[in-house]
Design brief:
By secondary structure, this protein is mainly alpha-helical. The protein folds into two domains: 8-299 and 659-677, Alpha Horseshoe (Serine Threonine Protein Phosphatase 5, Tetratricopeptide repeat); 301-381 and 400-467 and 476-486 and 531-555, no CATH class. Helices cover 38% and strands 6% of the residues. The protein is built from 28 helices and 14 strands. Strands 5-11-12 form a three-stranded mixed β-sheet, with no helix packed on it. InterPro entries: SusD-like_N (IPR033985), SusD_RagB_dom (IPR012944), TPR-like_helical_dom_sf (IPR011990). It is found in: Cell outer membrane. Residues 510-651 form the RagB/SusD domain.
Length: 692
């Protein structure tokens, strides 16, 4: 399929004028469409990365496509916009999310094709550099095609240069078999690995390297194995390849430049976000201190879409998170929330991934460091009506003044390059109410540093050390897995996670399609689904260089496309599917050990064997929210069983044809063989087009 959506010449020129994904070189216009100049050619190559930061990994479309409609997430309320994604209720080919991901991937694939095909026509450039950049383009093309074939099934495998170069547009595209598409993805990656460097080209962290292609290859083998189970009868062949590839990357990590942190706190440390050693591929966000800031997309609002906020009445007037969110960011845009299954996957008694994945405790904040918001503005004296509503049984021997105090204090640091102020936060010590900024606790740059005096016990300010003490009056809301025995000592609202959901496990407020969840419990947990819930914090950062001034919905941190932990999960998954449960458990235990608290007994986290259910659970704990759940359920043909257990609303509408997303209506409206191509069975064409 040729480039249908945009004129490649215009796109190439635009791409050559701007850098992308923190690719700092400046690329002049090609001048012609032949790409014989290295500068023009390498500029188009750089532009092929742009979709990662500008669209795919910073916008809700790909996130909700990759995570929604699974056992991990539910629509927070009953809004029409997300019924198609989260509940499979009348999805259509003209729904914007389905169209955007399709368009983004194919537009970049065409650029990759041009770079690869035209590399032999260059008049200048170092041959070794050209070979390296071709390998990068093959890895990029493999990534984009892996998204398309997983979500849309047998689409068109186009390997031709853009219409701006070839001069023709194919308006009668034909589908390719999923087998052929996967074969070519695997070919691209196996050819790319030897030619890629261990270190990124020009030291640019956004570039793909040897470990990127190797990790992606393991993922692709696993996804192909699932297709072998459901269609081709060759699943074991590809599970073995997935196991071997993952094992090689794990056992020879240093030769690939790969690394796994030994403490989950280091993995999610804000100090490691831009230089994360565990990352295999990233979508590099712009740094406010870099001159590249002005040229790179700054639209990442995933933290705002993921954070549910706290009960507003616990905050002082005109200081609510949905208004002036200098600490959390604006918390008035959440439209999805974790399912009951996901929340109870975690056992926080031993697993630190709980607080490093979810904001389970909420607080007030101040801005004493910069003089913007006094300490007193974060002080809240509880009145009788609040205590009655949230079942706060004030023990006057513990809290004689019934007053809550700030937990965090944000600074305001001016930046250059038009990035606006930066608001990194520190923590007020428990029991100190002086408001003296000299007493603030710093966030650790490493797990070891976080434990030292003068530090807050965490490498991420939003990761609240577990558990919150009953007498800690720096928090207003704390979500717990089971009722507290000493609740009477708590000045904060205690919300049991189970009370977020009705008996059918749908959140209160999600009232359609058989839900009984119209009236949540009134005492202690009232209206939780419409005002507060644990919030995913993997996309929320607080360090100098990640803020976008007064636009408090945007955070510009690096996004992880794939990290080394997934390779361990893939190794475990493949071994389990091959009948080697003991070996699978060994891989899982590496991840579980690094997540375990210092005081946790080995018996609480160590597995002796692993079942398929263990694989599902460990993926949930480790990778929730990281663009992977839908593909996992697809390769295990598990939508029906998992949704029936953990997402009953989605289960009611799920049909077998939902294993493939609808083909883009915009694409179908452009080609001249729409009816023959088909829309995967969603009703906008006479047939599905699925003939394989």
């Amino acid at each position: 399929m040729k480039r249908i959506f945009k004129n490649i010449a215009l796109m190439a020129c635009a791409g050559l004028m701007l850098n992308a994904c923190d690719l700092d070189e400046f690329n002049p216009s090609a001048g012609d469409a032949s790409l014989t100049s290295f500068d023009a050619w390498s500029g188009l190559h750089s532009y092929s990365y742009s979709c990662l930061n500008d669209e795919l990994y910073t916008a809700m479309d790909w996130l909700y496509l990759a995570e929604g409609g699974t056992d991990l997430w539910v629509a927070k309320s009953n809004g029409t916009n997300y019924k198609q994604l989260f509940n499979y209720e009348d999805p259509t080919s003209n729904y914007n999310t389905f169209q955007k991901v399709w368009k983004q991937c194919y537009s970049m694939i065409t650029n990759c094709n041009s770079v690869i095909n035209e590399s032999t026509n260059l008049n200048d450039g170092d041959p070794e550099t050209i070979k390296l950049l071709v390998a990068e383009s093959k890895t990029l093309r493999a990534l984009y095609y892996s998204i398309l074939v997983c979500h849309y099934g047998p689409v068109t495998l186009n390997l031709k240069s853009s219409a701006g170069i070839t001069g023709d547009v194919d308006l009668y595209p034909e589908r390719s078999s999923e087998r052929d598409i996967y074969d070519h993805i695997i070919k691209d990656l196996t050819e790319a690995i030897p030619d890629l460097g261990v270190e990124p080209y020009q030291g640019n962290r956004a570039r793909f390297t040897k470990k990127s292609a190797k990790g992606l290859l393991a993922r692709v083998y696993a996804q192909r194995a699932g297709l072998g189970q459901s269609k081709y009868g060759d699943a074991n062949t590809y599970w073995k390849l997935a196991a071997e590839t993952a094992k090689d990357l794990i056992e020879n990590a240093s030769s690939y430049g790969a690394y796994l942190y030994t403490d989950i706190a280091d993995m999610w440390a804000d100090a490691n976000n831009r230089t994360n050693k565990e990352a295999l591929m990233i979508a590099a966000g712009p740094d406010a201190s870099s001159t590249a800031w002005q040229y790179i997309g700054k639209g990442n609002k995933l933290s705002a879409y993921s954070c549910g906020g706290s009960y507003s009445e616990f905050f002082n007037s005109n200081h609510k998170p949905g208004d002036k969110g200098y600490f959390y960011g604006r918390l008035n845009s959440q439209n999805w929330m974790p399912s009951k299954y996901l929340l109870y996957c975690f056992n926080p008694e031993w697993d630190k991934r709980w607080e490093y994945s979810f904001q389970y405790a909420y607080c007030e904040w101040s801005m004493v460091q910069c003089g913007w918001v006094p300490y007193s503005a974060g002080v809240k004296k509880l009145n009788k009506s609040i205590c009655t509503k949230y079942d706060i049984q004030v023990d006057e021997t513990v809290h004689p003044d019934s007053t809550l105090y700030p937990y965090a204090d944000c600074n305001a640091i001016a930046s250059s390059n038009g990035a606006g102020n930066q608001y990194p936060a520190k923590v007020w010590p428990k029991g100190d109410y002086s408001g003296d900024p000299n007493k603030l606790l710093s966030i650790g740059k490493s797990a070891e540093e976080a434990k030292k005096p003068g530090f807050a016990g965490s490498t991420k300010v939003y990761a609240i050390p577990y558990p919150v003490a009953p007498d800690d009056n720096r928090f207003n809301t704390v979500f717990v897995h089971k009722p507290l025995k000493d609740k009477s000592k708590c000045l904060y609202a205690v919300v049991v996670l189970d009370d977020l959901f009705g008996s059918n496990d749908l959140p209160y407020g999600n009232v359609d399609n058989g839900s009984e969840a119209a009236n949540p419990p009134a005492i202690g947990n009232g209206l939780t689904s419409s005002s507060a819930c644990p919030s995913l914090i993997k996309f929320n950062w607080s360090y100098n260089g990640v803020f976008y001034g007064s636009n408090l919905q945007i955070k510009t941190g690096d996004m992880f496309i794939m990290r080394m932990a997934e390779v361990y999960l893939l190794a475990a998954e493949a071994e389990q599917q091959l009948g080697n449960g003991t070996k699978a458990a060994e891989y899982l235990n590496v991840l579980r050990k690094r997540a375990a608290r210092d005081q946790a007994n080995e018996s609480s986290w160590k597995l002796t064997t692993a079942t398929e259910e263990d694989i599902f659970d460990e993926y949930a704990r480790e990778l929730c929210g990281e663009f992977s759940r839908w593909s996992l359920l697809k390769r295990h043909n598990a939508f029906e069983s998992r949704l029936d257990q953990y997402n009953k609303r989605a289960a009611q509408s799920f049909k077998p044809y939902h294993y493939n997303r609808p083909i883009s209506y915009e694409f179908l409206s452009t080609i001249l063989n729409k009816e023959e191509y088909g829309d995967n069975g969603y009703g906008s064409t006479a047939g599905s087009g699925l003939v394989e």
